[in-house]
Each structure stands twice: as C-alpha cells, then as structure tokens.
Design a protein that fits this description.
Blueprint lengths: L6 H16 L20 H4 L12 H4 L3 H17 L4
Amino acid sequence: MARMNNSRDSRDDRRKSRDRDDAGAARQRRSLDGVKTIDSRDYDLLSRFVTEYGKILPARLTGANPKQQRQIKRSVRRARNIGLMA
C-alpha cells in the first residue's frame, strides 16, 4: 500500500532544505570589514551596497549589523539626492 504524502512529511522536507540553506549564512559577504564610518560621498564604498538597478541590498546579503545598515541606507539616500548615485 502506498503511503500518502501528508503535511508532516512536507514540513520535514522544508525543514531539511532550510537547514541546508543556513550553511551559506556563514559565508556571507562582509563588505564592511575595516570600515569605521560610512560617508555619503564615498561612491566606491556605497556602490557595494546597491544593485545595478539602484536598490539597496538587505543586511542579510551585505553582512551589516542593524546600525551599519541604517548608516548605509541614510548614506545611499543622501548620495542619490546630491547626484552621486542614480
């Protein structure tokens, strides 16, 4: 008799795939190593935190802590306003 796929099996499958995905969290990109301040006029630094379409990357991809992510957000927005970034 064939076993029916119930919701518990599908939850276990999702949990296993999520556990595998967490292994990549340790290999996050650390773009802020050695950076003390985030300046809104430093285009080279800010361009690391923005996609080619101009969207700000989330902290889970950049490896920034919440305080640094707020500084990045503020600096990118200021750079856009003064015309350094599109």
